[in-house]
Amino acid sequence: MTSFREFSQACKIIEATPGSLEMTSQVAELLKRVSPEELPIVTHFVMGEVFPAWSSREVGVGAGILYAALARSSGLSVSDIEGLIRDTGDIGETAVKALAKKSKGQATFSSFLEEAPDISVHEVFERFQAISRSSGKGSQTSKIKNLQYLFNCATPEEVGYMARLAVEDLRIGVGEGIVRDAIALAFTVPVATVERAFMLTNDMGLVASTAREGGPEAVEGLGLQLNRPIRMMLAQIAPTIESAIAGIGEAAIEWKFDGARLQIHKDGDRVTLYSRKLEDISSSLPEIAASIGKYVHADSAILDGEAVAMDENGRPRAFQDLLRRLRRKYDVDSTAKEVPLSINIFDIMYLNGEGLIDVPLVKRRSLLESCVENGDSIQVDRQVITSDAEEINGIYTEALRAGHEGIMIKNPQSPYSPGKRGKNWLKKKPVMETLDLVVIGAEWGYGRRTNFMGSYALACHDPKTGRFLPVGKVATGFSDEQLSELTATFTDLIVVQSGTKIELKPQVIFEVAFEEIQRSTNYESGYALRFPRLVNVRDDKSLEDVETIDRLEEMYRLQRERGINPSTS
Ligand code: AMP
What we know:
The chain is an alpha+beta fold and 569 residues long. It has 20 helices and 20 strands. A hairpin with a 2-residue loop joins strand 3 and strand 4. 44% of the residues are buried. The site of adenosine monophosphate has 9 residues, from strand 2.
């Protein structure tokens, strides 16, 4: 049995390890040391998650609950805790300091714990599960009590890691890449095999256990499972149609619909719809689920498509209208009447018990056409195979005229690569003038906006380090209604609050327009956006979609080469 104390000690060592290779071997050692039952838990914990990525469960602890639990466990007041947060800027350090300051006379569980058995990682996980399950009236109190129990069973140092885990942000520098390499190293499985298994199962804990029990062969055997979403295949930008054709040759051309990605799992009569972020959103989209049931003629299938909201003239409606439908829990039927959706299905990854991701696109396409009948609010749209740039240009113009975003240029021989943004799917749309950036911080407003978070700090992604690098702030383009909704959303994501400044868990993605990308020493990315404004809150996008630092660099370079600024071209 691994105690949470041992886990915390390992975290401390990993946190202080400078290079990623050494870090990987530390994580590998940890994974080898723990018992088989604990391995999935520790694998998730070490990368700062409590539940696997495919699961929509989350611990559900925000700053308010955490501060209250720390206050109760330490005997300090909530404002003392807030003061510590201001000083340390980190929830973990705050927890350590708060508990260390605990008044000596206070008889809590931990005062006599020196002798008592340690709490195990398993017990910590079970508490987090209980916290995640509590909902409705009284859930706040129950969450605080559960956290308090955990904090009282631990030394101040352990409390630091527990507090960070409670907000699913462990901050020891271990991300998916390091865990993937550590599993490979610990259980002698090729990195690519681990990577592929993760993309298919979305569960690093399961991959680790399988690697330990059955080695490479067993990990290779991990495959698609119905009702468990796989990562979506993603597209790269094609600078021009000609360059795309030069790379792919004869290509499969499809319209790029302006909508929201949906992964559809049909398991007999059961239909589950997953968003781009792999959340189960079936209950928000009953008409799509019904159409799948009626028009997809297969016992079981996993399909990929784009849900769109069309107006009475057959043109796509504003993206905000579509967003009103996604993840809606209340008034589903009335909103469905106001904003009916249809689905364009463009790929198939699984059919009647057989995984198809290694089958070339052309073959997948013919299987798709053989099992999906076009019907009310469901269609498999046209796909043209050609290498004729003029013909492709014609399709591109048609797509734009119809109000869609552009075209997809796909390699007909390519497999379906979950989670990959590779060269087999290219997207061509009018010169890019927006960026998808993740919100990492905010500031409380002033004057009329005192109760709202009014200005948001944005970041791009650095794939080399896995970190998010600040690129500036956006404070315009918001309606009052949007600000109030965003403030409510972000309140649950507060990691640290200090004065009017707030650090947020990176989760929400803003699509922002701007005049120009500039070099800047003010932000860690080395770039800043001139006149950024919010275009859309991209509820449908996930952290994988955040623009990379390489992309910003490339845009900056193109902007200079062309001597134009990308927002006006
Ligand atoms: P982007 O969101 O700009 O990265 O573009 C890729 C997205 O286009 C995909 O994630 C889909 O949501 C969407 N899309 C629309 N039509 C298609 C299509 N025919 N094939 C693939 N993706 C499509």
